[in-house]
Design a protein that fits this description.
- There is one protein chain.
- This protein is an alpha+beta fold and 322 residues long.
- It has two domains: 2-152, 3-Layer(aba) Sandwich (Aminopeptidase), CATH 3.40.630; 161-315, Gcn5-related N-acetyltransferase (GNAT) (Aminopeptidase), CATH 3.40.630.
- The protein is 27% helix and 31% strand.
- The chain contains eight helices and 13 strands.
- The protein has helices spanning 28-42, 60-63, 106-123, 142-150, 190-201, 213-220, 268-282, 300-306, and strands spanning 5-6, 17-21, 65-69, 72-83, 88-97, 130-136, 154-165, 181-182, 230-235, 238-248, 251-259, 287-293, 310-321.
- Strands 1-2-3-4-5-6-13-7-12-11-10-9-8 form a 13-stranded mixed sheet, sandwiched between helices.
- A hairpin with a 4-residue loop joins strand 4 (72-83) and strand 5.
Length: 322
Amino acid sequence: MSDTNLVLSDAPAIEGLRFRLYRGEEDIPALEAVRREVQAVDGEIWMPGPDTVPNPACDPTRDCLIAEVAGRMVAYTWLTWWEETNGTLLYLHLGWVVPTWQRKGIGRALLHWQEQRLREIASANTGKGIPTFGGNADESQPANRALLLNEGYAVAFTVVKMLCELPAEPVEIAPMPEGLTLRPVEEAHLPAIYAANDSIFQESRHGYSTDSYEEFLADAGWSPETKGLWLVAWDGNQIAGLVISKIEGGEGETPWVAVARDWRRRGVAKALLTLTLRTMQEQSIPRTRLLTVAENPNHSVRLYEGVGYHVTSRHPRYRKLM
């Protein structure tokens, strides 16, 4: 299928190097091989692709570029885009080169092609936000980081992964501020919880975009069996704060921690978090994880460290105006 081949003007002079677009299921074994090689060095980094994203924003047959040397896949790319609540139209390009072929110019050629392709996509977008390129380079990816910095990108914010190994002794539950009450979460509460969480995160400057109600429930892991890990503090009929957790693979995960502006710095989050940890202990959960942002103005990393979490990795997110 020679019609999938592309000529890149700034491709490095490497014998046997060619670039082509994704051809469908026949490429999946080679994509998986690239993932294994990259993750063997860089760790379990996020590497989406046409075989892992069921309903992609992009068209893989037009937007997933592959690099081969002597017929062997050595790199592939991925594109996606969304509108963030701060007015950013983010066009995220991702790409991975197997370690033995890094720092030879392949990644730069792929990046330049991706930027041009995203400009074409952005020109047809009717959104009113600010078109912005996005790129990811985790701490374990110095080659990616160097490439992005050399191409004019800067760190916009840093995603922080944190882990809490639950101790043998019971976690001390911090007191709930006076005036707030906890109620068992029922299905009738879910729309209000969704609306409150989204409203609180609307002010975020760090990559937040609104999910649909259905997406929120799926991500948060709602079910009658896990509702005991959905903790909501109520101020009358208004939600003052929430900590939503779930169990996956026998371990805990907390996708959402949110406190209304009027109740911040008053101990709401600490009370809900410590109660969450105690509840997990009672269910014999050995450890639990969450994500936050290092630049969070409410000093979330310090909050989580204060209840027993520690940082396991940092994942800078790079941006550049289109």
